[in-house]
Amino acid sequence: MYLKYSLNNKLRFLKKIFQTRYIKPKQTLIILGLLSLLVISFVLGITFGSYNIPLSNILKSTIEPIHKTVLIQIRAPRVVLAGFVGASLALSGASLQGLFRNPLADPGLIGVSAGAALGATSIIVLSNHFVPETLSGPFLLPLAAIGGASGVIILLFLLTKGFKTRGTTYMLLIGIAINSLAGVCIGILTYISSDAELRSLTFWTMGSFGGVTWPLLLPAIIIISFFLFWAMPSSRNLDLLQLGEIEAQRLGINLKKLRFNIVISSAAIVGISVSLSGMIGFIGLVVPHLARLLGGVNHSYLLISSAIAGSSLMIIADLFARVLVQPAELPVGLITSAIGAPFFLYLIINTKKA
Description:
Number of helices: 15
Shape: globular
Low-confidence stretches: 1-5
CATH architecture: Orthogonal Bundle
Radius of gyration: 21 Å
């Protein structure tokens, strides 16, 4: 009787998945609404700050030179980076939650963020002692962070090789161990850092989009866009994976390929995002839950809506970071945590009531 009941439940779930293969009309409207919010947040992001630029001046055929400099060289790359980082963290959070079938999964869970942070911390603290001055430059910190994230990716696949269907579970456990080891190394580097290095390290770990330039941003945009689109086709397989790994394999899902696609794409976009913006929390954890509350759980909708909502939320958070304490600037990581933590508590309380 129990086996029959369990089989019926799985068949009903499978039927529900096939019925939600495509994005529903309601979900399409939600995505369009989120796109409108993204456009509005982008306009607000480039017009407001410590130096406000009226929208009417931007729309003029002849814009003032100072407005043009602030808009193109300072404000626009910052807002674009915030949008791409928000989309990266949110989409990777949604895809990792689907891969691990764990609503608490986020980009930091598998250790990639910690690896990127360790690479960046090493450069901040040790570059003055071990890196020749001819090799130092604006690309050194991002490359070190990407190198740290890449090292974690290689380590994950080497250590989980041979576990077959249980590889996802062991990848999660290895990620937790890597987070702990990276935390120890970062703590040691923090302990031996000078006052100036400690100040730089502290601000970097709280996140910021300041100081980004187009030459530094354009390569990151190309790579992030490539991996964002690479992750999207996995949405169907992520839906089927919610039945369980054994059932998903019986339905023809290549778990090894799916795990590779999700982990590589998530690790790449998170590593690049962390390398340019520092450590920013709660976006990858909270935004997918918000998207589910708005429109549903099928990943065809969830991945797209999470990316758009994460982009909008990050731009708005950066805007608050720039205007709350003018002319100074708050770390954007504090803003996202201030928004994300109460919302996450609200989700937990609502779940308990339900």
